[in-house]
Amino acid sequence: MTYQFVRTPVPSRTLSPDQLEAALRAIGAERYHNLHPFHKLLHGGDLTKGQVQAWALNRYCYQAAIPRKDHALMARIDDREVRRAWLQRVLDHDGHGPDTGGIERWLVLTDHLGLPRDYVVSQDGALPATRFAVEAYVRYVWDNPGLPAIASCLTELFAPKIHAERIVGMLEHYDFVEDRVMAYFRKRLDQAPRDCDFALAYVLEHARTPEQQAQVMDALTFKCNVLWAQLDALYAAYVAPGMIPPGAFRPQEG
Amino acid sequence: MTYQFVRTPVPSRTLSPDQLEAALRAIGAERYHNLHPFHKLLHGGDLTKGQVQAWALNRYCYQAAIPRKDHALMARIDDREVRRAWLQRVLDHDGHGPDTGGIERWLVLTDHLGLPRDYVVSQDGALPATRFAVEAYVRYVWDNPGLPAIASCLTELFAPKIHAERIVGMLEHYDFVEDRVMAYFRKRLDQAPRDCDFALAYVLEHARTPEQQAQVMDALTFKCNVLWAQLDALYAAYVAPGMIPPGAFRPQEG
Question: Span of the secretion signal (chains A, B) (predicted)?
Fold first, then answer.
């Protein structure tokens, strides 16, 4: 059973590829999580170290799930060439051979923030809402056909801007963040555009009916919701009203 | 919902790793498809070219699904190190970079047998029973936890013997088979032992309760059934009684 999270109206006629791309970019302009108040606080230097720790350990859940999401996607793809191209994402995140990969780079950040690695990897301190959102993403990709599954990755269209802002903002504002630990984001500045070029070209080529076009817009909206919900949960637990649910990470500082 | 295909009795007490390995090898000794009459005909030179074509194009469905199966498995594995090790299977089958991979090597065989590549890849001429068995395998790996999913691969313990027999038998007996097109099987002689060493070690380490041990024996039995059912279907359609179902491949020769 495929749960329908959002319902984009079906366009009255088929959009041209340019129109579809514009429609997808408009979704990001309205819904990508760079607009969330939590990110403004994070990048503006307005969070305590404890709040940054909470962000990093919750975001780890998302990072750790991305290769599973990509495997779930490839498990549904019959076209060997698409699988071969998509595999690069797994090689980037899990690493391959001597490259220890993006998840390891994220753990360098959480190490540096003073979080015990076992605790981060266990995900025991993460907010339940984070884990629900992340698993909804893995499930979505498994439960849906390849076209919307691939379209759900198109938040990468908007990622380089947020990563660049984050590198500058966090280095400038937090004395507990140093250049070395921002390696994850630097690396993504190169990887995300390459990944999303492939995904965008695939979507523009394969979404050929109004129904398919609504489906891919739906997928991108869904994915924006996955990211936004994670920041809503962080904000509610650690900013305002600041109600940390039972069992979740509690910062040690005031 | 996990459909239970077989029900191995739970051992009355925990087996030692050696005992569990022996129990798994006993399953193969009884159920691995090298024992199937179709394989005896294939390796003994007793099939027509049309029957060998039918085998190769049906077996393509299985080959083509293996990377999807491995992706489905990795989508359920939280341990990054296990995913990194398991990924080699996908690199082998789909190929990576300049290596075009095992599925392509299989298509070299079907090309050589005179089957149009588009027809083979479309799977349109495959027996429905083949495709049901193959998809049952992909589903099993997604629907079950990592331990039985990994155990289902242990038919690789028995594969090198069948591949070696096949190379010798087919080259000796069929003038329409030549050495070059047996590259798939030669390659698997190296790959399968490495793969199954990892899988066997994982299973022996992680199946620690009688229930888990029954579960991995169940998984291997299920997988033997997946392979056996494909040969039953080939035998029934192309050997005896020779009832080819509607839409399936029909050999052109008498």
Answer: none
- pLDDT value, residue A4: 59
3-state secondary structure of B99: strand
Nearest CB partner across the interface for A94, out of B69, B80, B103: B80
Chain A residues whose C-beta sits inside 8 Å of any chain B C-beta? 64, 67-69, 71-78, 80, 83-84, 87, 90-91, 94-96, 101, 103, 138, 142
User: How confident is the model at residue A8, as a pLDDT?
Assistant: 86
| Partner-chain residue, chosen from A73, A80, A94, that has the shortest CB–CB distance to B84 | A94
Task: Give backbone dihedrals phi and psi of B97, rounded to 5 degrees, phi first.
Answer: 60, -130
Q: What pLDDT was estimated at residue A161?
A: 87
- In this structure, what DSSP letter does residue A32 have? -
Rg (CA), chain A: 18
| More reliable by pLDDT, A150 or B254 | A150
d(CA A91, CA A105): 13
Of B71, B83, B84, nearest to A74 by CB-CB distance is B71
Tell me how close the Cα of A219 comes to any Cα of chain B, in angstroms: 20
- What token pair was written down for A113? 């923030």
> For A88, which residue in chain B has the nearest alpha carbon?
B96
Global ipTM = 0.87
Q: How many CB atoms lie within 10 A of CB B226?
A: 20
**Spatial separation of the C-alpha atoms in residues A69 and A99, rounded to whole Å:** 20
C-alpha dihedral, A105 to A106 to A112 to A115, nearest 10°: -140
Please report the pLDDT score of residue B113 as a whole number. 96
Ordered by where they begin, the domains of chain A are 17-238 (1.20.910.10)
Give the Cβ contact number of residue B172 at 10 Å: 11
User: Which residue positions in chain A have pLDDT lower than 50?
Assistant: 1, 254
Residues A110-155 have pLDDT tens digits of: 999 999 999 999 999 999 999 999 999 999 999 999 999 999 999 9
B80 neighbourhood in chain A, CB within 8 Å: 64, 67, 94, 101, 103
CA–CA dist B240, A197 (Å, integer):
52
